[in-house]
Amino acid sequence: MAEGTVLSKGISFMDPLKGLLLTYFMPESCYDEFFLNFNFLDVPCLKIVLSKGLGIGIILGSVLVKMPQILKLMGARSAEGLSFKTVILELLAITGTMAYSIANKFPFSAWGEALFLMLQTVTIGFLIQHYGGKTSRGLLFLVVYFGLLVLLLSPVTPMSVVTTMQASNMPAIIIGRLIQAATNLRNGHTGQLSAVSVFLLFAGSLARIFTSLQETGDTLMALTYVISSSCNGVIALQILYYWNSSSERKKKKKKKQ
Q: What are phi and psi of 37, to 5 degrees?
């Protein structure tokens, strides 16, 4: 009898949070396992909660992940060291992942960061053109991109095209990052590349390997994030390698001014 009273108290205590937990973090079977059976070590449910939690964390982080890069460009009023080709290829990869996930009806927690990364990457693409003295070309880039995006997400586009686009993400990511790495190597510094944004992207893509396998079971998506993590890791290593070079360059610029 006492046990039943304790159980009912436990249930009533968790009632206000139940809707939130079931919507974002776990299925009802796991809720019952945790809060009715008090089995907090159930491995399958722990994996689900960890995956959902990481997914939401990545999405929340992605809202601001490229803001340091955007602010750095605007503060310097220069896009030196950033490759527009890299931005285009990165945008292709992000758009492919977003379209593929929407077409396959994957949960938002499995791909939501792609939406925010897309908006920020488009902004960076425009700023590169704008600070390169080609504002009209930047505006044309925005119009063309969003026009193609609407077409891609419409029912007119066959699923085979969306799948092919997702598969093309891997070479797009590799080529895009190689272009950026080659630019850094040629310049001997990383220019206006933001260390904060690079490291956050690297951490996010690593976490996405686990969440994509757990939430979608889609090996194509998981493999894309493996490639993305490796390429982001190369740029992150360059940031560390050229750290002192970038600092010395800034000091020289200040002296000249």
A: -90, -10
Residue 39 DSSP class: -
Q: Within a 13 Å sphere around the CA of 60, how many CA atoms are in the beta-carbon half?
A: 6
Cα 54-198-229 angle, rounded to 5 deg: 60
Q: What is the number of residues in the chain?
A: 257
Residue 173 is encoded by which pair of tokens?
């990511």
- 169 and 96 Cβ atoms separated by less than 8 Å: yes
Q: Rounded CA gap, 70 and 193, in Å?
A: 10
Give 24's contacts (C-beta < 8 A, 6+ positions apart): 52, 56, 109
- The amino acid occupying position 35 is F
Runs of H (alpha helix) within 104-192: 113-131, 135-153, 159-167, 169-187
Q: Residue 250 has what pLDDT? A: 53
What is the model's pTM? 0.68
Tokens of 38: 């008090």
Q: 71-100, pLDDT tens digit by residue?
A: 989 998 988 888 898 899 889 888 988 999
Residue 143's alpha-carbon distances to 126, 136, 138, in angstroms, are: 11, 11, 9
Residue type, 189: H
Of 24 and 123, which is predicted with more confidence?
123
- Per residue in 50-76, pLDDT tens? 888 888 888 887 788 888 889 989 998
